[in-house]
Specification:
By secondary structure, the protein is an all-alpha fold. Helices cover 79% and strands 0% of the residues. α2 packs antiparallel against α3.
């Protein structure tokens, strides 16, 4: 009789424990998923916004450095024109590089924030 009582008590407590779902764990999981979704949308927005800067920077830098190369080629035959093209092309190339850096700055989100000080590698669910 005593064994039957413990068996019944065990089955009842096991069924009760299985029937209840930990609400706090589900809320924490929902919050984590929503945070990941917000982070993903922010990254996508940053990539979209920086796309124009990056394309413009590449175009301007390529044009500037191409003019610099042309100026270098003309130094032998037309020194004045070649010298002017060297300076103008170099300045244009630097401006394109600055535009590229601004585009990469828009992509960056900064360093990730740690969830807890003691445990940086494991998510906090």
């Amino acid at each position: 009789m005593r064994q039957l009582f413990f068996l019944f008590l065990f089955c009842f407590s096991y069924g009760f424990a299985q029937g209840q779902s930990p609400v706090s764990d589900q809320d924490s999981l929902k919050r984590s998923i929503l945070q990941l979704d917000r982070d993903l949308r922010q990254v996508e927005l940053n990539l979209y916004q920086s796309q124009k800067h990056l394309k413009t920077g590449i175009l301007v830098a390529t044009l500037g450095y191409s003019v610099t190369i042309l100026g270098g080629q003309l130094l032998g035959t037309q020194p004045q024109t070649g010298k002017a093209l060297l300076y103008v092309g170099g300045a244009t190339g630097l401006v394109g590089t600055v535009i590229l850096f601004k585009g990469f700055k828009k992509i960056s989100l900064g360093p990730p924030l740690s969830q807890s000080r003691g445990n940086l590698n494991r998510p906090n669910f």
